Fold these 4 entries.
Entry 1:
Amino acid sequence: MRNLQARYTRDRLILLVVIVGTILAALPLTLVLGYALVNGFSSLNWDFFTKGPKPPGELGGGMAPAIVGTLVITGVGLLMATPFGIGAGILLAEYPDNKLNPTLRLLSDTLNGMPAILKGLLAYVLVVKAQGSFSGFSGALAMAFIMIPIIAKTTESVLKLVPWNIREAGLALGLPRWRVILSLVLPAARAGVVTGLLLATARAAGEAAPLIFTAFGNTLLTLNLSQPMDALPLRLYAYAISPYEDWHRQAWAAAVVLLGLIVLTSLLARWVTRGR
Amino acid sequence: MNEFRPVANPESGHTEVMTLDPSLKARIEARQVTVWYGQKAGVKDVDMPIYANKVTALIGPSGCGKTTFLRALNRMHDLTPTARVTGEVLLDGVNVYAAGVDPVEVRRKIGMVFQKPNPFPTLSIYGNVVAGLKLVGIRKKSLLDEAVERSLSQAALWDEVKDRLHAPSMSLSGGQQQRLCIARALAVEPEVLLMDEPTSALDPISTQSIEDLLTDLKKHVTIAIVTHNMQQAGRVSDFTGYFLNGDLVEFGPTNLLFTTPKDKRTEAYITGRFG
């Protein structure tokens, strides 16, 4: 009986350790979120979403160019990254004995671990240098470099979760392998693949570093991808290190909007995979 | 291949066997088929015919190679990087392993039903049946509708699902799912249907409905069925091959093999002394 009591005590002790650990891990996140929300919400107003930045010293203005720019840059980046990311994921999961695979896996892992600023540098060399000017497109390309390995990884892992017998069933019907993958395996993994796309988007949307010397920033609203384009993380950074009190407040507001976008994307990912 | 053909023996009593149809034709002829997994052979030097419009059962204890052999017939081992098949599998006289033969074409002619029902989870009942046709470019609705009714009727599922053809395939019971898989395989009109323990995951009633099917089905297709259930082999098959440790120990007409096995190992197995 005493032995049993000891076990109960040990059980409670371990539970306590787990709970304390969880709180410690969640605490910084909660503080950051809370601080951003408290400081940011008070600065959010209609102008913030509809107006462009005012010159230094002038109060008011907003971040319309940055909000639109972030949506455009990450959107175009996602469009570019999706075929490559999903393609790489398919190759890794469905053709494990392919000769390209070891190289591809190494590349994908390296690209995943590479600092985002280096991806910006790559886009800078490939596009900005060649074109002679900063542009939204080069920013989108940098975003795509961030997204591709994430999409490849999630696609690979969800494809591997699709039961092998679905592939066998398709092949036994006399379907070619690519048909089986595109029409039968990929649809079965659809929710997971879409989640991967959304998570990659959320991850890339928050990056400022790769945009510094690609999208560069712009105080004017533009949809032209060959022009410098603003983005929320860029504007946030610029305002946060500025000496102006009003800009600091707007930087907090930008943080809240960015957080909102990312939370929204994650919720969308949850919703897509609901009930699975 | 004639050694198992019955010798006319008026005293044996196997009258049915003696009147073997002289027009009996091998749809598939396996010659010296060996399946290698790396250095190890899963089945060794199997010579065996699969007669047209008959049901051929492959029996034997677990791990004896019966499924391995079955999967060699429609080149399913192509997908296992470590597996290699030697020997010949002649389908209507043409070696399916010959250079230049497309495995996709082979599998179109030799369909397969698996141990566990495996309908495509994202497709409806209708979608499952037409999957093989649709994905090779047949789009005409009248043709697809026709194929659905024909295959589902052949698989004895039509009456149960005709009012909910567009319901998700996963809403069916296990036995219905397996019959759906049979219908799906039949929709592409294969010449041969390979069945890998198709009833082992099913309850007795579903099992019986699938066994009943086979008798009708063999009018249209040639059937090879792997089963670990000897009673099932006895009930449904015309010919039986007994596998042990990768060898085909004995092959012959089912009633003969079950009543007067030539090999002591076969006798030991069918009388239940092991396995």
Entry 2:
Amino acid sequence: MTQYLLNINPIAILVHAAIPLTIILVYALVAIWAERKVAGFIQDRLGPMRVGGWHGWAQSIADLLKLIQKEDIIPADSSRFLFKFAPFMMFAASYAAFAVIPFSSSYIGSNINIGVFYLLAVTSVLTLSIIMAGWASNNKWSLLGGMRSAAQLVSYEVPTIATVLTVIVVTGSLNLMTITEMQSGNDILGFLPNWLIFQNPFLLVAFVIFFISILAESHRVPFDLPESESELVAGYQTEYSGMRWAMFMLAEYADMLLLSLLGATLFFGGWNSPFGEFMSGPFWSFFWFMLKGLLLVFVMMWIRWTLPRYRVDQLMYICWSILIPLSFINLVLVALWEVIF
Amino acid sequence: MELTTILFYLFSIVTIGAAAVMVFSKNIVHSAFALMFALIGVAALYVLLYADFLAATQLLVYVGGILILILFGVMLTSLGYTFNFRTITVNLVPATVLSTGAAVLLIFAFVTTEWKITEVAERPDTVYDLGMMLMGDYILPFIVAGVLLLIAIIGAILMSTRLSAENKGGT
């Protein structure tokens, strides 16, 4: 791998690495606008309508320009280095994880064999950056938010990993590209695509557990306790302003996309077209992959504006008493299904 | 200089520098975050040795697990909420003697050992080989480690339930 890196042009490496970054940035602009429109429509109002003409499409761009102009305030009693470093580390962790996501049948950042495992390992740094931000702010709300986030992420990592493990039991590979390639074709009941979610009834259960866990991992309502606006004043983000705060927002949306794309890869066939050979190929596979990922992101937004927030004890109860036992039983059942059929 | 050599020195400096900050920092939370940089640096060095699985495990277990628990533990104590959670030095003389002894031993071992230097072989499939070895030649240590962890988990659960039962009786 290292030898391979030395032989190619450094500019080529940069371009190769910048593709996911471009996708994340464009997606974040659209997703923040979409979030507000979804919120508006669910609450029977219009959402942003003014900037740019058609349905306020330029609202995110205007917000971004405003954030760039804002003063960068650092609290006098904060731990300066950690305070400044935390937002960048958070974004770096979620961006680094995009390296193993197969965006299309012909593009993947790094085709390493430990794909999913690497992704889970790198995203665990996210928790640490939230604790860092919460502690360095020297603010009780921030610290509470950081601690809640640590407890929540450490707990919900267990059901996430257990459900990812069920997929690995079926596919026998950690490489996300291989997992996707194994799901191509339309053989189930004659017309359904060979996606893992249709292959095995227990994998459907696994997907439900996985989706609940990734809601908690990306701090979305009903599990947004680390940053609950109404009680913790945005938690670990309280003291941040301007572009540093924007980095947190970007990282959060990138994390949503990352986990949704992971879900799409593991359960919904990744870049495979739902119609077999029809509309497949490098460009269309990118289209299908992003469509699946963005649909899951849309469901996350839909849930955010529909459900109320859980209490901390309910959050822990759901994880340790329901999701973890269920995911382990499910893992055994999937393994049995694979042995029998 | 080759790119890998530059990367090796870069990550070594990060690791050693972070370790020094960790040891000499007066603030325990700063030490914990410095430990994070040291652990990430070691993970990067593993990658340079083609041990990708080990690097990811290092991140997942040490950075994503143990370090978060350390920070969580520090912040749960009443002093964690204040900013001045400081470390103090105790047992200055015995600690100096012991650490000097350990340093001398390590340096002696490093100088006298005949290190076998080989080119690192590129492995296309580390996980597969690792899994085969764990399930084949090294099955006994693997199972013993698993049982040990199970005992530790059961012990932790027992201790926490006993403590909470006592608290309920007390209030």
Entry 3:
Amino acid sequence: MASLPKRIIKETERLVTDPVPGITAEPHDDNLRYFQVTIEGPAGSPYEEGLFQLELYLPDDYPMEAPKVRFLTKIYHPNIDRLGRICLDILKTNWSPALQIRTVLLSVQALLASPNPNDPLANDVAEDWIKNEQGAKQTAREWTQRYAKK
Amino acid sequence: MVMENAISDASDFAHTPIPKLTQLDALLRCHICKDFLKVPVLTPCGHTFCSLCIREYINVQGKCPLCLSELRDSMLRSDFLVSEIVDSYKAVRDDLVRVLVETKKEDEDEDADQSVIELGSDVEEPALSQSSDDVQIVGTNERGTLKRAATDLLGGSSRSKFFKSGNVAKRSSTTSRIESMFHKSEEMAACPICERFFPVKELERTHLDECLTLQSLGKSPNPAQRKPKLREKPVLPRSTRIKSTSEAPKVSHVDKYIHSSAENGHQRLPKLDLSSMPVTQVKQKLAQLGLPTLGSKQDMVARYNHYEMLWNSNFCDSLDPVDESELKRQLTSWEASRKSNSTKSTSNSISNMMVSRASKSNSQEEYRKLLANFRNDKFSRKAWSKLFNKQFKRLVRDAKKRVVKSEASTKEATSQHESDDKEDVEDPLSDPDLSADLLNAIDAKASKPSP
């Protein structure tokens, strides 16, 4: 393995010394490009009170290439599918090397606060969300209770 | 120079008396590598990045990382002023952080044993705080606790004004801590030797001794180091400091900026669509530039693209371009790190060839220097292992691989890689004694797992 770029070391240090409220990210002992992440469900959303586990991987070309982020905890969300993959523009087409782990995780947290059923990844969830928003939110709350309990 | 290796961060200033320096520090950094701007270039959309960082990203995607507007590398313009600002800031940053952290510590010590003391007259302060720019800068500081560090920056002349305006700022945040610091700053006095300002107590207790010791050692504690008169004469403080310890040439960032010019007689390398050319043509292009034509077409295309980036960044953007051989060395190390990154380790050894090539041309001198001290105490193990790091790693890797592969015919394999390794090693080293030593060490390692 080639040596870790300075930028990654720096970002890791910052994540530890100055963590984002409601988000933790710890690098794996064996692979400093692999992070174990937790995100608290934002207050006022159906995911409130939930603690979601994610994994984040920095590819070799990072920061020229976006980090790979995936939910490990099951979640009922129109932009997150059963495998935990996330539909978020900055992780795909709108990635920019000016972004960093911190901003990516904040965006994921923001996605929990404002789901976008019009650009779905999990089609069934998105359909449910459009047809019966209250019911869908209720389901999301139940899932949070069941799978993401702190 | 220490800075190059240490990982500094804008947040270093967050807990000093001047937390707003965090912003200055952050602004002088590239948004791609998060380090200080190195050969900064300006985009048409008004954003600045390191030349290499942005060129690398443009190869991936032609957008500005900050505003996502369209961007091509021909649009980039070098920004000599920012370049020199960053360099002169880097030169003082260490001192700045140190002085501010010390100041903070002293403040905390003071807190413990000093009570609040009101000073200054409320009436005349507001007027004074606007009487000079220095003072205003000071006054806008949130905590208004500049004390010694700021005094150093401002110089003795504006000292009294500064203290009073400092008091204005403090009044808004009325904490006993700050009041006590204010009181303390009244007790500053100039050191008769180095002319810097210190709290009287510190001056008497420790500083005078230090200063005298330094003086007797012939190292003049230079006042410019901590008290640069930034307005009239922005000399580079580090250069003066270096001068006091060694005879490094003095660089003025101002002069360098004034005399900067983009003309250095080198044409920019064009971006070529090599992947749509036949292999022979690709090889021809590489050969014209004196680059190796080894490896797959994909490797060669990547090699050209990276070299084009290095070249244009160096000859079009940089104020201090290096010569072509250094660029080739950079290309070599880039290619080597790329190789070790990719999981498939190619036994076809382009990187080997490149390394030996580099050893022959550029590192030859370094190698000779090291070799001269090989058998005595001055021999630098670190530099040696750094110079041959790649070869060492490769040898060990190859050896291990072969041992695992041919466990059935271990002996055969051992003798085989011995001969192979010999070829590889002797080429760059050209010293039979040494390569034999190396081989012995490697063989010992490699043959361990065999029965």
Entry 4:
Amino acid sequence: MTIHTPTTEAQACAVVASVAANGTPVTIRGGGTRTGLGRPTQVVSTISSAGLTGITLYEPSEMVIGARAGTPLAEIQRTLADRGQMLPFEPMDHRALLGTEGEPTIGAVAAGNISGPRRINAGAARDSLIGIRLINGRGEAIKSGGRVMKNVTGLDLVKLVSGAHGTLGFLTEVTFRVLPAPECVVTLVWPGLADEAAVALLSAALGSPFEPMAAAHLPAGIGADQARTLLRLENFASSIAYRADALGELLSQYGRPERIEGAASQELWHSVRDARFFAGSHEAVWRLSLAPTKGPRATAAIMQALPQARWFYDWGGGLVWLAVPADEDAGAAAIRTAIRSLGGHATLVRAPHAVRAVVPVFEPLAEPLMRVTAGIKNSFDPAGIFEPGRMYAGI
Amino acid sequence: MSAIAFPAPRADILARRDAIIAGLAGLVAPEALITSDDERRPYETDALTAYRRMPLAVVLPSTTQEVAAVLRYCGEQGVPVVPRGAGTSLAGGAIPQEDAVVIGVSKMNRILEINYANRAARVQAGVTNLAVTGAVMSEGFFYAPDPSSQLACSIGGNIGMNSGGAHCLKYGVTTNNVLGVTLVMLDGSIVEIGGAHLDAPGLDLLGLIVGSEGQLGIVTEATVRILRSAEGARPVLFGFPSSEQAGAAVAAIIGAGIIPVAMEFMDKPAIEICEAFAKAGYPMDVEALLIIEVEGSDAEMDAQLARIVAIAREHGVKTVKESKSAMETAAIWKGRKSAFGATGRIADYICMDGTIPTGQLPFVLQRMAEIVKGYGLRVANVFHAGDGNLHPLILYNCNDPVEARKAEDAGNDILKLCVEVGGCLTGEHGVGIEKRDLMRVQFNEADLNQQMRVRAVFDGEWLLNPAKVFPLDGRVAA
């Protein structure tokens, strides 16, 4: 397979224009750690962002960083950490879950709208992404947004591209707003709660003035024998001490929490962020997005149909990571039926190639929205060259 | 004054007015259809009052189904539609045209559901911004985006323009606080995008709809995030001998890892105007004022303020005045939030809305003063210092056409300056008609064409709010 590795935006335009002229499908590759996301595609060439690297803008006092799409995420995070800052949305690392190797890139984080536990409070990648440069399917370099965090000029193509998984174009440069890294981080852990009670605890905490920055529940058997309900506080040290006590008091009916800090806290949240509890298994893995209090109802209903299912909750109960046997439709029909009445949706994150080829990986859309999706795809990529079928069959 | 052009009304539509009105009358209740001159007049303009056009008719539906019926009819008949929330747009986003039907959502003003455990509220599009907070305040919650017009402006309008406010430094703007919408498309289809969950499936259509200025459809309901209020909030006034020092203090505060919930800047002319109106106790002997608000428990606010005061002192702060009571807090914010209204008491003004990288602040303030002086006018500056969103108020006399023209030219020069230094034309008010003809300063042809191609997916005939956002020439239909 041909791999194109443009080193300038102009080269990238030329590559796309030539691919479009042939009308042959192409996949976009950053570090290759998330290639298993979405539906399998049939492509004849690859455009790699490996030749487009380097931070192009970093103004700590303006809380903004820009980089070429192929810049390793680790380089961005290191650069920010040196100045006491961080990406607000805590992007997930898919390598453990998907069994991939390589170096995640900042472009893929933008293209996949890749977020983590702090999303519940600080927003998703798409909320922090303030500017993009993109080569559309006509081979035109276009920009949307910019480098300032308040910008409502024109249609917000930034958000449309974030989470489009490369189906709308090839990102060459992305700009994010950043936040100061907290002085102090503490995780409170309540042991032994059932799912309903745990989510009630998380809702009470997230509805308190004490601003938990992450809120998860790990049922018994997920990483430990006993269930663990987690709240993460991030702040100045003096505030943490006060808020941890205040939350303990507010939630006293659930028992006394244990406090963990430092490497132990970080390790635990990395496991939540990266769904490492399901790493290395042969199960299919789903990601369910629901109103938080509906998380336990969804898992209870799914359990009826798929008794081997395992799961845990992030985002206060609103994100359910679910592992089920990978045979047949990987539980798609049962899962989507169970959550239909609850108003959420399910995405198949990990499954064998053959399953992803026949099961809709992303939740099927209502007909008018499917029509709009196809129209938008066509408006960016009239020849249909970028990742055809990655999100929806025929689009 | 008529510097901004409107498309010529289509004679064939004007000629069919009676038939169109009869068609509309069959779709909505009689009281929802407004056709007389007197009753249409309030819909001629919005908060950009220098421009006005009498619409063909005004429809005020009560249900999503009525909106769908009217949109489908207008789509079939090829009649332009101008969606309207509360009509408070400063950019002219709701100004109609003679051949257009205005669809206003003001009668759809019910709060449908509040769920504190899920921290979400479902509201109709005509609910005012402040009414959302009002509905959840008793439980200690609030809706975060807080545009200055929040008493009057509607959630539908906020979604149309992706409105911001003084507190978005910490809490984000509308697009960060909307979870789902019911959208009526031009063909009358009613679609649900998102919901009470955090991520919608598929392409981020919600992110596209928010801020699309009524060009893609009409939002009739929305699910918004509601947040628990902090235990307390305290604004503090910091008076500086120069704008440069105030700007440097803002950068240093952020550099120290502190994100106050709001950091608002006023220059001397703005201080004088607002103090005369609100009697908030603003210091009068300084060149620049920062209102910095912190949140938390009393002890937390004390600790955070101690850090901020120390930084301000390093940057030569002259006056530090803390709010000591709820009344003082209210007065401090009243002064800031009524800045536009207070300015209107002493002169006509146009309010600009560009954003700049905050590092460019001293340079931009100096250049703006020179630009406005060059036109023989005065300017008062209020802006969101943490995020660089400027609101220069250019003062002029609207009864003097020459001066009015100069004010618009000065405003355009300022917005070009914002783009030149790496910023943008509009941070929170939207493009509307006001900044439409400057879009090519910020975007090139390929950028704009891509946006217009996306627009065409929803409205290939340019019927939805057609005079807005994109320059009238060079429009792309697909």
